[in-house]
Write a structure and sequence with these properties.
The structure is a homodimer of 328-residue chains. With 328 residues, chain A is α/β, with parallel strands linked by helices. Chain A is built from 10 helices and 16 strands. Chain A starts with a strand and ends with a strand.
């Protein structure tokens, strides 16, 4: 009997365990063009919070009392699909469960990069590619830039820090608490801002006395306002996420957004999905950085399918350093 | 005896007449490379509010108890400067006064475009070029786009409406009250939003049921938030001004800024000054549109130098339709 997590009710504000239920499923047979996969690792990501709302966004909302989905790495245990064989390791979107019968759409064999399978949900997967294209394309960051990245101990932010250093930039990262700030500095960051220690705007002023050229936003809210306040001429802001707003109905407040005009800031929202046709660039560079030790793996692993909601909820309380994962 | 308006104190919030004083000046002699100009028309513009604060921005603040400056059209009455002769009409930055002795820096003879002199402070001057480059370059607006422009009855907005129509776009303009909305429609706007009639976000939803591709922002605040709420995929926002914030110490509040990510909005601050090297493009196109009647002049004229502060203050109460000017 396979098991899958269902969304049982739409959260109002911060989700809790009551919103989820783990349910048994009889798997169907493996039809033509299908395969059965047994999941090894599941990804939980902040963007999933948006799918728990009813409103339409760039991906459809989760349906009530149906299995949720999300990134996963699994092993093919039975295949009637061309190009996939028993024993293949694949990334796919039938996460939040232990086993599934799936079509080939969105299923990829792990690229030939020397790394553990879970890396392809982390720095060699969606979060890593988000960091890579967000920093180098959406924010047009280049050697010599002063880069500020929020949630710098997180799955995306920690890779942004390392790519920026590999490319010769100065990097300031924000994180929650002294320990995570220490981790961010261990990745090469030149300075950190502990946003639990005082107003982020003051912390960033101290950490970036000369201002910033690039802001990679994972947080929104007061982090984004602080970035407005420190932006230099022609600064570029890439908006990747705004976790500060995911569980809130309150508007975000900005005192310094007007500096976008005087400083001619360019601010751009982007999604990983816009770049899937360019993943070869990402694997090429990232493979090299991983091999040379310039990008180091880091994850926080929850053990067991039954812990998946806890892992997800932990994203909003800062329980993870690096990528948050579930080992099935 | 020449006369000039001085800033006597820095306004806290909305300025008032007490912040200004009209003072007599003995003009110096006209030195080598200098000229004396008698002003015919003065420009008052929202951006001047920023110069009344102490803080540094892209232009220095006005000094206390010194003549203010700003755009003006004047006649040369005495010249020791190469290339300028008695009788020449020029645009220059020694506004807020009736007569001045100036160097040649920032002084231009009126371009050879058939128009009244005050047009070069209006649709053929800084506001017109701001509209032109903001819409076509900063916002990358193109034929077929649905364009929303705030303060569409103002100096810049009214030109944005007309250029957008000349270029085959659909245009929605916001303005204060039914009369100004009627004026905006008379310029060719397809729909208008009277922001005194209810929440702008609701007004824009009704006026742009299919959403918007471009937002030209002169206002900020709830107008900008409404634009976030209606933006379509790959919308472009050009930030020209945020008059809603010029007299306020309160932060601006945004409920929909997070849509920048899902819709991959690009938002760009810009200044007229970035485009002065490309003014020939502007004069070429605008000269043609004026000649063909596609762009029509509109100004609100205050009579007499002593009325300059009233004209300026009127910018914040919506006293102008089209460009606000002072006839000296």
């Amino acid at each position: 009997m396979a098991r899958a997590w269902h969304l049982m009710s739409r959260p109002d504000g911060l989700p809790n365990n009551e919103n989820f239920a783990l349910k048994d499923h009889d798997l169907p047979g493996v039809g033509d063009g299908q395969m059965r996969v047994r999941n090894l690792f599941l990804s939980v990501d902040p963007y999933m919070r948006g799918r728990m709302n009813e409103s339409k966004s760039y991906i459809p909302p989760f349906q009530i009392d149906a299995p949720m989905d999300g990134g996963a790495v699994g092993e093919v245990v039975e295949s009637n699909a061309d190009g996939f064989e028993k024993g293949d390791l694949v990334t796919h979107m039938a996460g939040w469960r232990d086993e599934a019968v799936i079509d080939t759409k969105g299923v990829y064999k792990l690229p030939k990069v020397d790394a553990e399978p879970q890396a392809f949900l982390s720095h060699l997967g969606m979060p890593g590619a988000t960091a890579y294209f967000g920093l180098l394309d959406a924010a047009e960051a280049k050697e010599g830039d002063i880069v500020f990245v929020s949630a710098a101990a997180g799955a995306v932010g920690s890779v942004v820090v390392q790519i920026a250093k590999a490319k010769g930039m100065t990097v300031i990262g924000s994180a929650r608490g002294a320990k995570k700030c220490g981790y961010v500095r261990s990745l090469g960051a030149d300075a950190t801002v502990d946003y639990t220690a005082g107003p982020i705007i003051k912390g960033l002023r101290d950490a970036a006395p000369e201002g910033i050229d690039v802001y990679f936003d994972n947080v929104g809210g007061d982090h984004l306002d602080a970035a407005f306040s420190r932006a230099r001429l022609h600064a570029r802001f890439a908006l990747c996420g705004m976790i500060a707003g995911y569980n809130s109905r309150e508007p975000m407040q900005f005192r310094y957004i007007i500096r976008m005009i005087a400083m001619r800031i360019v601010m751009r929202g982007f999604l990983y999905g816009d770049y899937v046709s360019r993943l070869d660039e990402f694997y090429r560079d990232m493979g090299e950085w991983v091999a040379s030790g310039k990008v180091k793996p880091q994850d926080t692993m929850f053990e067991g399918l039954d812990k998946a909601p806890d892992a997800f909820l932990g994203l909003f309380t800062g329980a993870n350093t690096g990528k948050m994962l579930v080992r099935v």
